[in-house]
Amino acid sequence: MGEILELAERAWTGELGELNVHPGRVHVGLETIDEGLAFMSAFSNALVLKTDEGLVFVDTSSFFHAQALYDEVRAWTDAPVHTGIYTHGHVDHVFGLHHFHAEAESEGRPPVRIVAHEACPARFDRYQLTNGYNGHINARQFGFPKPIFPKDYRYPDETVQSERSLEVGGARIELYHDRGETDDAIWAWLPERKAIYTGDLFIWAAPNCGNPQKAQRYPREWAAAMRRMAALEPEQLYPGHGPPTLGADRVTRALSESAELLETITLQTLSMMNDGATLDDVLHGVKLPEALLERPYLRPIYDDPIFIVRNLWRLYGGWYDGNPAHLKPCREVDLARALAVASGGARRLADRAEDACRDGDLALACELAELAWRAEPEDERTRSVRAEVYRARAREETSLMAKSIYRAAARDVDPEGDAG
Fold first, then answer.
1. How far is CA 109 from CA 53, 79, 105, 113, 175, in A?
2. Beta strands 81-85; 113-117: pairing state
3. Could you report the average pLDDT of every consecutive run of 10 residues in the chain (420 residues)?
4. Alpha carbon distance, N-terminus to C-terminus of the chain
5. Are 234 and 269 in contact (CB under 8 A)?
6. Whole-model pTM?
7. In angstroms, rounded to a whole number, what is the distance separating the alpha carbons of residues 281 and 264?
8. How far apart are CA 324 and CA 236, in angstroms?
9. Which domains does the chain have, with CATH numbers?
């Protein structure tokens, strides 16, 4: 058993600590899994299949690990690359073949064929339109010192609509489309090997289905995709992030429980919406399935399951949250100043925020601290309390999404302070 499969075993049994497998902390390396099949662990992963016509990549990893991917694969084989499959158009999945593209051109070989879902080109077009916005999102989410987001994309040569079978050098790869983290997601089934490559439909964490800074995600369809995969009775699961899962029982359990997590959140949310509840009612009324969230492969370490509720509301209910004051609101700073005057000044709001923080009511503390700071943003006291409260909130959160936003808010007013 190699290092990656040993890591996979320890991940399944939960031996890697509280966070277990974290999408942002990865082992980088390639391991041969079976004859003609290798798995590249990186951010993101890639599955490499040898065929008589050349290599097929299912997922292509990111620019962060493009050099490592090239070096590891070339240490394994010198076979030319025939096809690269994008499981979706997120940038950590579509920039890893740069050196292989250059190699093919320098050696006078045909270019690497790229296959993706038919919605992928539109995603790349959208990224061009929102390049700056996505740069700011990534800086906040991952703690980059400045905004960064790529501009040049290798668009697919061929696309998939709902499903398609590829035959490359004697190997069969079946591709299926299901909306989940993205609208352009496809997953791969290798029937001869009873192996499935999920892309980001499985990432060794609670599904990244609510990300507050990203475009629409699709929890109900995502759950259906997991059920569809499980029905194939796969014996090997290769995820977009994290180590493989081997063994039919383990694969079925991981897929089925991932589906169950999404299904229960979806059903509760829709039930409350259908009963006329407001968004506030729903956010505080949905009961998260804590037993499932304790599974080593479903821990809320990247996204927060409560964010899925908001995504469902946006998908099925639009942006009106049920509070008529929010329909055409005043400017936030005007509300903050009015409340500061009513309460005796911005520092009184800051004092109350500090009390709430001390009492452990961090949600209330954040609201009050934000109001105090917006009322008097240059006041040293309101700035200090805002930073203190958001650092405290970050320490209590488990998901990278929440932690990163709260830490960024603290840095806004206290760049040199403790990260929390």
1. 12, 12, 6, 12, 26
2. parallel
3. 90 81 84 96 97 98 96 98 98 97 97 98 98 94 90 97 98 98 98 98 96 96 98 98 97 98 98 98 98 96 97 97 97 98 98 98 98 98 98 96 96 82
4. 38
5. no
6. 0.95
7. 17
8. 51
9. 3-262 (3.60.15.30), 330-413 (1.25.40.880)
